[in-house]
Amino acid sequence: MNEYRAADNFLFGGRVTDVSPYGNGHINDTFAVTCVFDCGGSLRYIMQRLNANVFPDRDGLMRNMIAVTDILKDAVIRDGGDPERECLRLIPTRDGKKYYTSPEGEVWRATQFIENTDAYLVADDAEMFRDAGRAFGKFIARLSDFDASSLFEVIPDFHNTAKRYDVFLRALDADVCGRAADAAAEIAFVKARREGCSVLVDALAEGRIPTRVTHNDTKLNNVLIDVDTKKAVCVIDLDTVMPGTMLYDFGDGVRAGCSTAKEDEKDLSLVDFDMDLFRAFAGGFLHGMEGSVTEEERRLMPLAARMMTFECGMRFLTDHLAGDTYFKTAYPGHNLVRARTQFKLVSRMEELAKEMERAVRESE
Ligand code: ADP
Ligand code: GN1
Ligand code: MG
């Protein structure tokens, strides 16, 4: 369905005058909707068409989002914050629902547009990234009383790195686009790291670390940052909120934010792992979690950063081999470029392992 027709179904304030593609997400189709009032003022909203390929059960996903946003709103109010800026609010449809399902089965949702914020691909400085870490840690703390088992598992085994490895092997075996030959170095990189892929899922399954309600997609552009104060305002992209470990969120945040370059930088000489950013994020995250991190979680934090980066690189490589069916791409080979940056970061984290361990030990 066309985005203007979709917009007609929501109870936006004012008259819709513009619906334009917005943001840099890899998954959903995101639009900024501008509405104008007769008195002359205007208001913006975010409207999204959920990715049906990635999310087969979008009703289950939306049930999670409704439950989670309700809890977050209460938590923000309890902390004396502003719920209009600090958590997402679903805009109802004209027939009183929380989201819209089109006759052809597309699922659309809308929220308020959180103005005067930006989603950063690379942090300006360590202070900004520390605050992003604090916001992601706080997100987990705010959901700590929520029964994780009541959440629908939107993508089963989302961060099961060992299972992701098996999916990678299947894509390699099939090599449907004949791309394996040109990715030999990256394929070898992954194969050499097969051992140890299940360290985090094993720790969870054996109860050595607690199951928590986690975000599972904590890249820097999934937290909106105030353009004036540079403080983190609101954690967004709640599609993958599921039972997990804080190590997924910490690790994925490090993966995305501790690089000196963009996720799809082609010049690998520009891609490095920034230890100052790592220290800042670890400090912020631990602070946000308000002292609830266990010894074993803390011990695994540096390893989790490496594991989540390896997993993401492997997912990009898998999608490259499978013909770019999962992540949005701008050109052929885009996913391979992304995989390469992730593997460069993994190599640097392997070299910096001792320093990363010391940094976490010394974090407040
Ligand atoms: P995806 O799952 O595709 O990554 P997101 O929910 O992360 O989709 O949204 C994509 C982008 O849209 C974000 O990175 C951000 O730039 C922007 N965005 C999403 N929600 C809002 C909002 N409520 N206010 C302002 N910008 C938003
Ligand atoms: C996707 O939705 P987005 O763009 O914030 C992906 C993450 C990856 C990330 C890599 C549901 O995140 O798992 O880490 O791309 N989300 C999903 O940039 O697969
Ligand atoms: Mg996103």
Q: Could you tell me which ligands this complex binds, including any ions or cofactors?
A: adenosine-5'-diphosphate, 2-acetamido-2-deoxy-1-O-phosphono-alpha-D-glucopyranose, magnesium ion
| Low-pLDDT residue spans | none
Give the beta-strand count. Answer: 10
**Class per helix and strand makeup:** alpha+beta
Give the C-level CATH assignment of the largest domain.
Alpha Beta
Q: Total number of helical segments? A: 12
- Total domains, how many? 2
Q: Roughly how many Å apart are the termini?
A: 50 Å
Structural notes for this entry:
This protein has 364 residues and is an alpha+beta fold. The chain has 2 domains: 114 residues, 2-Layer Sandwich (Phosphorylase Kinase, domain 1); 236 residues, Aminoglycoside phosphotransferase (APH), C-terminal lobe (Aminoglycoside 3'-phosphotransferase, Chain: A, domain 2), CATH 3.90.1200.10. It has 12 helices and 10 strands. A 5-stranded antiparallel beta sheet has the order 1-2-3-5-4. A hairpin with a 5-residue loop joins β8 and β9. The relative contact order is 0.13. The model has no long low-confidence stretch (mean pLDDT 97).
Essential attributes:
about 375 residues, alpha+beta, Phosphorylase Kinase, domain 1, 2 domains, five-stranded antiparallel beta sheet, three-stranded antiparallel beta sheet, globular, binds 2-acetamido-2-deoxy-1-O-phosphono-alpha-D-glucopyranose
